[in-house]
């Protein structure tokens, strides 16, 4: 059997993490190709629905990338994203969805290496966890 | 701060004493109207009624044993658009707390409202109460029993009936409003407690309605502590029972597979106030081919779809402000333990932000604010 290849859906903010991912590419950082990037203007624009929908419909992990605290282009979007993610993860944990498949990370436009490292690390962790049980739930 | 006093009850008629006070509010024009639960002509239920004629207060019930709708929703309708005159609303403790939450979300305007909170012994499901009346276990005799129970802090329901689950585990039976009628620990056939916020107390004294310097024997606070202690025990037991059943998402879904996605829990919920709910927009009107793709991927899918996402997202919207009124439970046609679900998850999330919904109107709800220094990545919260 072929090794399990996790699939990550990433919501990246335009000003920091998306540009950071761009830098990872232009500086030829190597990272696994398991990631599908969705480009948003701000991590604060990531609705919890997007995250859950991705997890229910087939993603093994969701990465949300935003500017470091204090650096948000829109002043406070990343702080709002942080609360939203914390609430969603709290709810999921309470219902026994304990694996850490949702990551919110701060990666700036100059941190191409950090982006590559984060994706590499996340793929490793998800590979250990195995496929996301949520995507097999026929009655979700 | 509030002024406290004791009201003498004439002839053991506790409810009439409070109604008399409310009647004088109308007569002396402290308020233009009063909203209070009133007995239905069929005698087997109560509904909130907006009253202007003081005589129509007869039949009003301060301890209505049912809660057909969350009155905070009604208060929202009443106050949000052009309410120019003072209105007093008689609410249960959880309705006060829901009203406070809605005020924070700008869905209630408190400017022209006086909230009157009544200590709450708990309520019964509407159909249960109707049956109790048919069996002669309802009406005045039930209310007298409830009042006697409140004196000792030991609430007993008539044989064969029980309080609503949410009421059994409610640790906030005492209202915090502009005027609070205190019943716990009082010999309610002789006297009851009253607390009135200072500005209003002055007006009431100036108009000669009520002399707040009257004193009498104080209530016994330990009575309330015992009751709350019992309720917390019951709450923790119910939470534990729920957690033992719902160990992971698969089991949760099996337990909730009878959910017919009617959205009743959302309609009944006082906190779900959005005019246009995302679950009723085109976002959840999928293409036929999309359903087929899902069915193809998973081999087959349950219809209607989106049950899990509905409950989880609804939770992420309202759970920080869930005041635990349990009307979602009462509204669920499949009798799912939704109130226990929302309250047990809510307890954890609210603790995360050190937030008690309905505590203080000047607090900001967690979903509408943030702190710069919180929820570090290392903490595992994100």
What does this structure look like?
- The complex is a heterodimer of chains A (140) and B (382).
- Chain A is of the alpha/beta class.
- In chain A, β1, α1 (17-26) and β2 (35-40) form a beta-alpha-beta unit.
- Chain A has helices at residues 17-26, 48-56, 77-94, 112-129, and strands spanning 8-13, 35-40, 61-66, 102-106.
- By secondary structure, chain B is of the alpha/beta class.
- Chain B contains 14 helices and 7 strands.
- Chain B has helices at residues 14-27, 71-80, 93-104, 126-134, 139-152, 165-168, 198-206, 221-245, 249-255, 264-268, 288-298, 307-318, 327-331, 338-352; strands at residues 2-8, 33-39, 46-51, 87-92, 113-118, 179-182, 191-197.
- Chain B has a 7-stranded mixed sheet with strand order 1-7-6-5-4-2-3, with helices on both faces.
- Chain B starts with a strand and ends in a 30-residue tail after the last helix.
pLDDT average of chain A, as an integer? Answer: 95
- Strands across the major sheet of chain A, in which order? 2-1-3-4
Q: Major sheet of chain A: size, sense and barrel closure?
A: 4 strands, parallel
Helical content of chain A, roughly?
Answer: 25-40%
Structural class by sheet pairing and helices of chain B: alpha/beta
- Terminus-to-terminus distance of chain A: 28 Å
Give the rounded overall mean pLDDT of chain B: 92
Largest interface comes to: A-B, 40 and 47 residues
* Range of strand content of chain A: 15-25%
Please mark out the parts of chain B with pLDDT under 50 across 5 or more consecutive residues, or reply none: none
Model regions low in confidence, pLDDT < 50 over at least 5 residues of chain A: none
In N-to-C order, the SSE pattern of chain A is EHEHEHEH
Number of strands of chain A: 4
Strands ordered across the widest β-sheet of chain B = 1-7-6-5-4-2-3
Shape of chain A: globular
């Amino acid at each position: 059997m072929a090794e399990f290849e996790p699939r990550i859906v990433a919501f990246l903010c335009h000003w920091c993490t998306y540009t950071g991912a761009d830098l990872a590419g232009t500086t030829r950082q190597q990272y696994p190709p398991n990631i599908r990037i969705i480009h948003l203007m701000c991590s604060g624009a990531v609705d919890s629905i997007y995250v859950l929908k991705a997890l229910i419909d087939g993603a093994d992990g969701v990465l949300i990338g935003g500017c470091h605290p204090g650096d948000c282009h829109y002043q406070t979007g990343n702080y709002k994203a942080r609360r939203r993610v914390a609430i969603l993860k709290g709810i999921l944990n309470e219902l026994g969805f304990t694996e850490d498949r949702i990551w919110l990370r701060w990666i700036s436009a100059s941190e191409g290496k950090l982006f590559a490292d984060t994706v590499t690390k996340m793929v490793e962790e998800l590979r250990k966890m195995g496929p996301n049980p949520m995507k097999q739930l026929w009655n979700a | 701060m509030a002024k406290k006093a004791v009201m003498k009850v004439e002839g053991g008629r506790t409810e009439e004493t409070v109604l008399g006070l409310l009647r004088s509010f109308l007569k002396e024009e402290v308020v233009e109207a009063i909203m209070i639960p009133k007995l239905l002509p069929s005698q087997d239920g109560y509904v909130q009624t907006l009253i202007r004629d003081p005589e129509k207060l007869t039949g009003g019930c301060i301890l209505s044993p049912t809660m057909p709708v969350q009155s905070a929703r009604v208060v929202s309708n009443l106050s949000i658009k052009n309410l120019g005159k003072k209105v007093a609303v008689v609410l249960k403790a959880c309705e006060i707390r829901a009203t406070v939450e809605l005020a924070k979300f700008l869905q209630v305007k408190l400017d022209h409202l006086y909230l009157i909170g009544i200590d709450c012994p708990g309520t019964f499901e509407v159909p249960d109460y109707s049956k109790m009346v048919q069996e002669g276990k309802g009406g005045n005799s039930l209310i007298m029993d409830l009042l006697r129970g409140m004196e000792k802090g030991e609430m007993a329901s008539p044989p064969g009936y029980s309080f609503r689950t949410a009421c059994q585990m409610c640790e906030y039976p005492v209202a915090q409003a502009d005027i609070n009628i205190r019943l716990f620990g009082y010999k309610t056939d002789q006297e009851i407690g009253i607390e009135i916020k200072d500005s209003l107390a002055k007006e009431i004294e100036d108009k000669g309605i009520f002399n707040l310097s009257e004193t009498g024997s104080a209530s016994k606070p330990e009575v309330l502590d015992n009751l709350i202690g019992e309720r917390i025990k019951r709450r923790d037991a119910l939470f534990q029972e729920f957690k033992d059943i719902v160990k992971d998402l698969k089991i949760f879904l099996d337990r909730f597979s009878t959910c017919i996605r009617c959205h009743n829990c959302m309609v009944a919920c006082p906190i779900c106030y959005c005019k246009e709910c995302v679950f009723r927009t085109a976002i959840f009107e999928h293409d036929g081919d999309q359903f087929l793709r899902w069915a193809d991927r998973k081999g087959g899918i349950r219809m209607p779809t989106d049950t899990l996402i509905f409950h989880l997202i609804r939770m992420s919207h309202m759970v920080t402000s869930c005041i635990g009124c349990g009307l979602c439970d009462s509204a669920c046609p499949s009798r799912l333990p939704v109130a226990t679900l929302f309250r047990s998850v809510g307890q954890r999330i609210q603790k995360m932000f050190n937030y008690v919904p309905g505590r203080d109107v000047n607090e900001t709800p967690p979903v509408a604010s943030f702190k710069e220094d919180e929820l570090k990545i290392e903490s595992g919260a994100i």
